[in-house]
Design brief:
Layout (H helix, E strand, L loop, with lengths): L1 E6 L2 E7 L5 E6 L16 E5 L6 E8 L3 E9 L4 E10 L2 E8 L6 E9 L2 E9 L2
Antiparallel strand pairs: 1-2, 2-3, 4-5, 5-8, 6-7, 6-9, 9-10
Amino acid sequence: MRATRACKFGQLIHVDHLQGGSRYFRWNPLDAEEDHPSVPEKFSLSAYPNPFNPTTTLSFTLPRSAEVALTIRNVLGQEVESVSMGRMNAGEHRCAVNAERWASGIYFASVAAGEWVQTVKVVVLK
């Protein structure tokens, strides 16, 4: 195996087979000087699509592992749904929310994770 030349997306590697012939592979090693975050730096929450009918996906990021709970409230502050999601690792997570049984209107989806709490307004259109 030998590196033959650098290319736009990394190094082009040439491999000779023992039974004859050769192949080229593209290899893109991580550059130690570049910033490649594997864990989010902050807690965030978003919903897509929004408005929706009947399902939306809540996407959230955790900078470190935490106990996570999801709560949905209507405009009167009444709890519509509440789910304990248990301990989740740091990283990006998604949760599908089905509003099939809810009336059209504005709701507030909150994700609590350890010391963090964030709320996003979601709109159900039927």
